[in-house]
Amino acid sequence: MDMVEERAVALDLGVQWRNSFARLGPEFYTVLAPRPLTAPYWVGRSAAVARELGLAPSWSDSPGALEAFSGNGPIAGTQPLASVYSGHQFGVWAGQLGDGRALLLGETASGYEVQLKGSGLTPYSRMGDGRAVLRSSIREFLCSEAMQALGVPTSRALCVTGSDDPVRREEIETAAVVTRAAPSFIRFGHFEHFSALGQHGPLKTLADYVIDRFYPECRGCETFGGNPYAALLERVSERTARMIAQWQAVGFCHGVMNTDNMSILGLTIDYGPFQFLDAFDPGHICNHSDQQGRYAYNQQPNVAYWNLYCLGRALLPLIGEEELALAALESYKAVFPAQLAARMRAKLGLLDELPGDLALIESTFQLLARDRVDYPIFWRRLSHWVSRRAQAGAPQPDDSVRDLFLDRPAFDRWLLQYSERIGNTAYGPAGDLMLKTNPKYVLRNHLGEQAIRLAKQKDFSAVHTLQRLLEAPFDEHPGFDSDADFPPEWASTIEISCSS
Ligand code: AMP
Ligand code: MG
């Protein structure tokens, strides 16, 4: 069978596809086919995501699947398109952007939009080549599934395929395609786009579409004088607040919180130079291109508000009154601290809520920051300490936690405060909660890096191992302790930039 014939046979995944986004009208997108990659191979696949999408267990068995998910052939029932959006990048209006290397295939009956990322040039590629490299594709694949397992709202990743086709970044790398899925990939930037152009018709079409599909409760609600667009802004603010609280609690830095990377559903999307904290440094900057630290770990909550403010401005032609928009945004300021406190209480094993908790949470952060204590290891060891104490029914040595600190007297003072507080609750349930809240396995930069180095030599075993650990990050996984250990010295020399 020659290439032309092969491309003409569409892969039937046995899925009913829809594309409600395509019905919004041609001003929202450009229809185009993915560009093929030479001799693709599988890098990683997620059975869990395949199930979510309604695919058969054997979905990837045919050579047609490998070709189709590399952009080399059509999938029956899909209509690939690239959408247009705009946005603020690093605080500056960047004008028109859009899906420069992603294509929306359609929506599954189970309610997921499916995209190929890295599938070639689109009208929105600007200076880019439309490609994604193997390195960043593996990072997106692993992190999506890690975040899902941690309970953080996120887009998912079905698979990664690779090819030896060269891609130029700082050096020559190779191409890959990530197939990702989310209920919607609509971004704040989609709204900013039509608003900035003064195209209030499409702006309203888009807002109505998002409300009808995802936020139907915004219609006919009593708040904001019945204004559904103000209600939408409030709901998005709440979801964003929940997501950011989760990021802060798990120690996740996104790295590029531009408004075009902010999901209208409060999902973590567009994994680029992200990082999970090793040492707890509140001012940590994970993106090597972010010289000012605009997106540092401790800036994320404020930046999210700034981004929501941009969304509010974009929606203003629909909302009508500025006061309504500002009132809608207020929910972020209430929900974020409450959600963060709830997350931190769970990390501390606090089963109820007491007035002094906020002070305890704050002093925990300060304690960790002073000695730059390893964030995941501190929480995991503390969880085990509480758990052991419950099992023994008596105080236990705290050396494993104490050893993490240079300033031992400060730790002892903190532990006294903490023990008194947790002494009011049951140690048994607290330990259980902590071991299910504080993961043993986290996608640290160096773990991803090790898997990527092997993958570049076509050995994907470390990708698969990491995937398995990260899909069940609270389990012990005997024999894999080294993947839950401190980062090696060289980890601090890894430089992750916007280049992906
Ligand atoms: P990001 O911040 O990585 O999410 O990307 C910002 C914008 O640049 C989006 O419009 C992307 O589609 C586009 N972009 C990023 N990398 C590429 C690339 N290699 N080729 C084309 N467009 C790209
Ligand atoms: Mg993006």
Report on the architecture of this protein.
By secondary structure, this protein is an alpha+beta fold. It has 16 helices and 13 strands. The chain has three domains: 2-185, no CATH class; 205-347, no CATH class; 350-435, no CATH class. 43% of the residues lie in helices and 13% in strands. Strand 10 (156-168) and strand 11 (172-182) form a beta hairpin. The protein is globular. Residues 1-6 have low confidence and may be disordered. It binds adenosine monophosphate and magnesium ion. Adenosine monophosphate (AMP) binds at residues 97-101, 124-125, 128-131, 256, 258, 261, 270, 272.
What is the gist of this entry?
The protein is an alpha+beta fold. The chain is built from 16 helices and 13 strands. The chain has 3 domains: 2-185, no CATH class; 205-347, no CATH class; 350-435, no CATH class.
